[in-house]
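== Fold encoding ==
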Amino acid sequence: MESFEIKELIDQITRTRGLDREFVVSSLRESFVFAIRRVYRDPDYPIEVEIDAKTGKIDMKVEKEVVKEIDDHRYQIKLDLAREYYPLAVPGVRIKVPVDLKSEIGRSVILRMRQIFLQKIQEAEKQHIYKGFEERVGEIITGMVQKVDKTGIYVGLGKVEGFLPPEEQIKKERYRPGQNIRAIILEIDTKGKRPFVKLSRTHPDFLKKLMELEVPELMEGIIEIKGIARFPGERAKVAVHSKDEKIDPLGACVGIKGTRIQSVTKELSGERIDVIKWDPDMLTFAARALSPAHPVNVNIEEDKITAVVPDEEIRVAKGTASQNVLLASKLVGKEIWVLSQSEYDGKKKVPVEKLNLDHETKAILAKEVDGVFSIEELIGRLKSAKLIADESEIDKIIEENKTLFE
């Protein structure tokens, strides 16, 4: 390779791939050394390579022992030839001898060097690109699904690869190669042999960023999100606060007829999102967090909060699989215990099997509770489970069961 070719190569790679010039020159030098040592099958072969980054000139020298008769030309140089470089050279000394790139190295070494160098550059470019993504951690990115297997979902993100592991996926979602997918950039992993951008659709910040895209007041900082709790793909609670008293944070986040929050719900495969107005008072905040229930009494007892709700609201206060109370606890940062008014007042619990209901209704009710404390709680649970068709049924159930609670 001529000096001008080396210079052009350095200039081109530095310019087009965004790599540091000093790094490119260093990689080229290391590639020459590695290629020559491979040819001579000696990992410690005493070759030295210097490259002038400005001119592209390569200066190579190898350390050899001066001898009268050569046994191994790789490590030895004859006395008369040595004196052409060092007139005072004598047998036994070691000198650095210039190496001619064209005549002594050969085409095979040049080709091997080029291959090694390009591999180094490609790897460095990949690392450089991934490092650039570190500044984008926390951003939402769109990519195309490349492969789906048990280890996760592999996503094409232009020049880099994204990876969505199982724990960062919404369980009920299914993806196929060729589909577009949106996720938040969680972290950049460049430690292994195969660097990747780790993605997430379950992280609370993904929900936060989606809301920021839909709600201008969040992007402008007028409204802020104080906390998020999620059961990804199922249900979530978001606490919001307005810095401007004139702006209602709930209305701004939900949007006219729920349009803003519905867009987020659609992206999250139907995840139901409760927007809660944050309050600096923990008890007030806890009461709001239990929405759609309306606690009548909230107290702090040692390491937990106790919330008392009307009997007919005990089911909605706890939620399906206790999701409502668990999310409220996460949002507030303290465990919340929910009690019905009757339970709080110490009234007796009537076992489900003793209620005057048909066998099928009892069986459904028994899956949730082993008993109820009042007729109001019974009606509330039956309504929530959609086990009552009309008002006439309510009157009949009250009439047939009221004596059980006296």
Observations:
- The chain is about 40% helix and 25% strand.
